[in-house]
Design goal:
lipopolysaccharide transport protein A fold; disordered C terminus; about 65% strand; 18 strands; mainly beta; 2 domains; 1 helix; single chain
Length: about 270
């Protein structure tokens, strides 16, 4: 789903140079519409606004409703949008919602896109929802062309894990932030006060790498480093590094692990030292 999110953000690449053809004098239009077409003559995108105020280099749209018809159909709505005809930058504000054809959504209060820097940015809370993974946090920036993103703080991720017996469970990861996502590597890195909870086991660390499956729709492995603590019932284990295979549920500790553990009953834990 992280891959989908970065694709949603790329919807903002709406070839804004077309706007430069408008008259530079201040004007106001009702029922504003612009469309773009691919080399085959098929519609590639469209931007609609209830009204459009052209004020010098800026075009201010109300009730923005945009669609991209590329690899997947993606819809973008916002209460207002401002496009600079010279730079091509776009600022969307109030109830910004990006929705894919399969129902996944990115929701925020504002989104600023800088075409020249290939950067989208917001300082507001962000919610990304899908069937298999949900992400929330405060502040985000992403480079759609480089397929990476960063959520600044108060990060929370809930994702599916499917073990080798095809049983599905949930992993919830929180951190003070930031969290960095690299789609090309299938990797998310969490920093500062990271806590992961799954199957009654809690992993705490200064930093955590989360490796996703090929489609980035499920977690395969967690690598925890720095002041690692593992809690399961009354059992506690400490180490400098822990690697958790989410599929086999196998935990490997390194860096002088110290274990305080119960060896009988439901809370019993097994750890391997490399």
């Amino acid at each position: 789903m992280i891959k989908k999110v970065i694709f949603f953000i790329s919807l903002l690449l709406l070839n804004n140079q077309v706007f430069a053809q408008q008259n530079q004098n201040d004007q106001k239009f009702q029922g504003f519409n612009l469309e773009g077409f691919n080399d085959n003559g098929d519609k590639a995108w469209e931007v609609n606004g209830e009204t459009a105020d052209i004020m010098g280099e800026d075009i201010k749209l109300s009730n923005v409703d945009a669609n991209s018809y590329g690899e997947k159909h993606v819809n973008l709505t916002a209460e207002t949008g401002v496009i600079n005809q010279t730079s091509g930058t776009m600022l969307l504000e109030k109830d910004v919602i990006i929705t894919s054809e399969d129902g996944a959504q990115l929701i925020t209060d504002s989104l600023d896109w800088n075409r020249e820097a290939d950067l989208v940015h917001t300082d507001d809370p962000v919610w990304i929802t899908d069937q298999k993974i949900n992400v929330s946090g405060v502040g985000m920036e992403a480079h759609p062309g480089l397929k990476n993103a960063r959520i600044h703080e108060n990060v929370r991720v809930t994702a599916d894990v499917q073990d080798k017996e095809n049983n599905t469970s949930k992993v919830t990861i929180t951190s003070d932030g930031p969290m960095m996502i690299d789609q090309s590597l299938g990797l998310a890195t969490f920093k500062d006060n990271v806590v992961a909870i799954s199957d009654g086991r809690t992993l705490i660390a200064d930093e955590m790498e989360v490796h996703f499956n090929q489609d980035m729709e499920g977690i395969e492995e967690l690598i925890c480093t720095g002041n690692v603590e593992i809690i399961q019932g009354e059992n506690k284990t400490y180490a400098q590094k822990a690697t958790y295979d989410a599929i086999s549920k196998r935990l490997v500790l390194s860096g002088r692990p110290k274990m305080i553990m119960i060896t009988e009953g439901d809370d019993a834990i097994t750890a391997l030292r490399d």
